[in-house]
Amino acid sequence: MQVCVRTVGRDDFSYSQGQGGYGSVYKGVFLPGDVHVAIKMLDGNSNCNGEDFISEVATIGRIHHINVVRLVGFCSEEMRRALVYEYMPRGSLNKYIFSSERSFSWDKLNEIALGIARGINYLHQGCEMQILHFDIKPDNILLDDNFVSKVADFGLAKLYPREKSFVSDRALRGTVGYMAPEMVSRSFGVISDKSDVYSFGMLLLEMAGGRRNADPNANSNASRAYYPAWVYDQLIADQQVDEISNVADMHELERKLCLVGLWCIQMKSHDRPTMSEAIEMLEGDVDALQVPLRPFFCDGDGIGNGMPPPQVMDSYFHSSELTAISEEDDGIAELASS
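== Os01g0114400 protein ==
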């Protein structure tokens, strides 16, 4: 469905408090029917030309999966372009997993994780064109009234033929902390659907521990700066980590989220599972899961604390190029909290 911006009156939508790198987002109401929608008004200086915009809308518009936010309409009129999505009243996963109070049980967290995995797997395997998201993070996972998780925000997504096993585009895409290593250096492998798997793994670890995967303000020699190292130490070395239960007290679903997350963030892309394999791991028995290799850079200084070497941390936290590309587009995710 194509909609015209002029047909949506000012009184029918409200400005979101958040504004991302790709445009402003409004909460709207389509009449008749009082259907609530999220309207993303793209910036006029967007790099996407008219033909590419229509092509991507046509592809994304055919996506129908319970775990992917549905595109219900669009507008393309001269330089004015807008995307109209179903409105997610519960907002983003971000505000729940990083809350000081645990909002979900382990069963619910596992259910949400499975929903996210199924949504990503559908993008990779269930569409005519393979859709690589390139920006999986808590802000881009939205929740409906029943807390069903849905993958959202395709601002950095790219479409590729399903038979293509790797991506030749070397442009950096993603958000610092969730970006796969191969997005930074060829030495870690090719860019592929496994790049989304890495981001998903970081998300799982955050869901298990309730904290961000990395702290750019922490001292680069402090183990607290790189959270996945803490998780690994707790599971393998039995070192106490504040956010993670000790092994004896750990809920089996907490352990499962941690183990699957660690598998997904293996540094070499070929060592990671596919999304369909990650789903099988989340659905299976935790006792059947093997402990993966330590998924971090470990040189002389890194073995003790699991930290990547300083030059890699600098690339992740301080590169102006990465910062510019990873500018967050929180838009739709912030509507429910506005």
